[in-house]
Input
Amino acid sequence: MKSSAAEQQKQGVRRNEQKWSPELWGAGWIGIPNIIIEKQLKLGLDATDINILLHLLRYWWHRENLPHPSKKTIAQCMDVDPSTVRRHVAKMEQKGLLRRVERKDEARGQKSNYYDFSGLIAAATPLALEAIAIKERRQQEDEQRRNHRRGRLAVVTPADAE
Output
């Protein structure tokens, strides 16, 4: 009997906890599709962009609740100037990978922006579909190789040849 998707997810979390230790895993973790890291160059992302995305993703737990850490918070974690974060976020926004959504407080004015990843998701999806197709094709080829039946060898005697 196949286990449910929720049970498989729990097993994956437990495996990662075992791999990293309960203490590290218990302090928090993020999920990011492999394709974003694997195809970062195709997406136009450099190492600093990936680092910024990882920091933003730390705060994004539900699709409808966009993350909103300040650039200063991200910069402090990365030990860079906030202007570095600002430039990289602007570059990702120009590429259509991120969208900043302004947040304002009537009493206090401007608050840290929300960050929308719709563009990154849209840009990475065709790359993911391509990777899935390649993976499926390789699995089919492997299956065909495993199931390919070779002809049986038979001993042929001179009498059989006549």
Observations:
- The mean pLDDT is 90.
